[in-house]
């Protein structure tokens, strides 16, 4: 019997801060991948939330686009953007409630396939105030290459106790 | 294997509170999967969630925010410094006047629930289509008064009891620092 959800690797920041977090040499034996992120960032400019991105295979070319459904706590909106990484939500920063981390899941189906890579993300950055950042996101990476590495990119730097886990998901019959 | 069943509870038609107590502290994340319907008579049969039995004075220890669609519009709303986390509003939990056999679905993710350096946050996906009405929502919530590990989760039907057929399943999810473990 195959294992449905299998942990591949977890990275935690014990203290201090760090730039991007990379998962390299991802096994090519699963059907899908899933990232679970509990993150927060340091800022020097006094922001409440800062952006969080994911990039694949260290590819920083302009092959990424996103469709967003966003809630701010008082208004809902939808938009589309494109760039050099997929946007996957927000991290709490200096002006958000202390000790509070985002709660984000990124699902990456068919990551070894030869089609373009479509990802789906749900992300919430809670705050004990009127303003939050909540997203449902569909992201496209226009590459036919299998995904062998993932870079999770903060806007500034990740703060201590940020934890990112990568899982492999297996379909039936494997 | 990384996802383990911890406990399961059923609605009995008379109790409005589902409590998971003595949650093992050996996992990294928790996931709660709910299939639920209310016996209440209020169409906005939303629910509450709170942790470690903390629903106490001064009733300001939580925050929540919601993004939802009801089939005709998208709305964002929320509350800070409030008594509990509210979810499944407006129509994400069928109630007594809805067609029999229709239940709502909710998936709750609680990350790093034993980490005492973090306020605990939850992400709640909820929805119910009732063949002509219903809603789907994404809710975030947090307890902001303590960074204590979560040992208990209470789910509360705001206007009635959980109908027979309702089910609440709590899972623990492990992680690994070694490839393939």
Layout of helices and strands:
The complex is a heterodimer of chains A (174) and B (181).
Chain A: E1 5-12, E2 17-18, E3 21-23, E4 32-38, E5 41-42, E6 49-56, E7 64-71, E8 76-83, E9 86-92, E10 103-109, E11 117-125, E12 133-141, E13 150-154, E14 157-159, E15 163-169
Antiparallel strand pairs in A: 1-15, 2-14, 3-13, 4-10, 4-15, 5-14, 6-9, 6-13, 7-8, 7-12, 10-11, 11-12
Chain B: E1 3-10, E2 17-20, E3 29-36, E4 47-51, E5 62-69, E6 74-82, E7 85-87, E8 104-110, E9 121-129, E10 134-143, E11 153-157, E12 167-173
Antiparallel strand pairs in B: 1-12, 2-11, 3-8, 3-12, 4-7, 4-11, 5-6, 5-10, 8-9, 9-10
CATH architectural type of chain B: Sandwich
The radius of gyration computed from the alpha-carbon positions of chain B, rounded to a whole number of angstroms, is 16 Å
Could you give the order of strands across the largest sheet of chain B? 1-12-3-8-9-10-5-6
Please tell me what the overall shape of chain A is.
Answer: globular
Classify the fold: give the CATH topology of chain A: Jelly Rolls
CATH class of chain A: Mainly Beta
Number of strands of chain A: 15
Averaged pLDDT of chain B: 93
Written description of the protein model:
The complex is a heterodimer of chains A (174) and B (181). Chain A has strands at 5-12, 17-18, 21-23, 32-38, 41-42, 49-56, 64-71, 76-83, 86-92, 103-109, 117-125, 133-141, 150-154, 157-159, 163-169. Chain A is an all-beta fold and 174 residues long. Chain A has one domain: Jelly Rolls (Sandwich). In chain A, a hairpin with a 7-residue loop joins strand 11 (117-125) and strand 12. Chain A is globular and about 45 Å long. With 181 residues, chain B is mainly beta. Chain B contains no helices and twelve strands. An eight-stranded antiparallel β-sheet of chain B has the order 1-12-3-8-9-10-5-6, with no helix packed on it. Chain B starts with a strand and ends in an 8-residue tail after the last strand. At the A-B interface, strand 1, strand 4, strand 7, strand 10 and strand 11 of A face strand 5, strand 6, strand 9 and strand 10 of B.
């Amino acid at each position: 019997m195959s294992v449905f959800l299998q942990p591949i690797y977890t990275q935690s920041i014990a203290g201090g801060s760090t730039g991007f977090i990379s998962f390299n040499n991802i096994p090519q034996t699963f059907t899908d991948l899933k990232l679970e992120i509990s993150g927060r960032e340091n800022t020097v400019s006094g922001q409440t939330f800062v952006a969080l991105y994911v990039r694949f295979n260290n590819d920083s070319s302009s092959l990424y686009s996103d469709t967003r459904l966003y809630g701010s706590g008082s208004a809902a909106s939808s938009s589309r953007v494109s760039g050099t990484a997929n946007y996957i939500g927000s991290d709490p920063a200096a002006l958000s409630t202390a000790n509070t981390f985002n709660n984000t899941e990124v699902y990456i189906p068919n990551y070894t396939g030869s089609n373009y890579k479509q990802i789906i993300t749900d992300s919430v950055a809670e705050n004990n105030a009127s303003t939050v950042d909540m997203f449902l996101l569909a992201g496209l990476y226009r590459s036919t290459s299998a995904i062998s590495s993932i870079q999770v990119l903060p806007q500034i730097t990740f703060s201590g106790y940020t934890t990112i886990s990568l899982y492999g998901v297996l379909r039936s019959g494997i | 294997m990384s996802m383990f069943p911890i406990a399961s509870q059923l609605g009995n038609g008379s109790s409005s509170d589902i409590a998971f107590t003595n949650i093992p502290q050996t996992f990294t994340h928790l996931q709660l999967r709910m299939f639920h319907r209310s016996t209440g008579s209020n169409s906005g049969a939303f629910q509450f969630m709170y942790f470690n039995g903390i629903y106490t004075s001064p009733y300001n220890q939580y925050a929540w925010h919601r993004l939802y669609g009801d089939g005709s519009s998208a709305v964002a709303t929320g509350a800070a410094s409030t008594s509990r986390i509210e979810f499944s509003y407006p129509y994400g939990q069928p109630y007594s006047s809805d067609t029999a056999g229709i239940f709502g679905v909710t998936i709750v993710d609680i990350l790093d629930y034993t980490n005492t350096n973090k306020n605990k946050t939850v992400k709640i996906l909820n929805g119910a289509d009732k063949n002509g009405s219903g809603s789907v929502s994404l809710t975030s919530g947090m307890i902001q008064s303590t960074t204590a590990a979560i040992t208990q989760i209470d789910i509360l039907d705001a206007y009635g009891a959980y109908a027979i057929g309702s089910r609440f399943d709590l899972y623990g999810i492990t992680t690994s620092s070694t490839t393939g473990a």
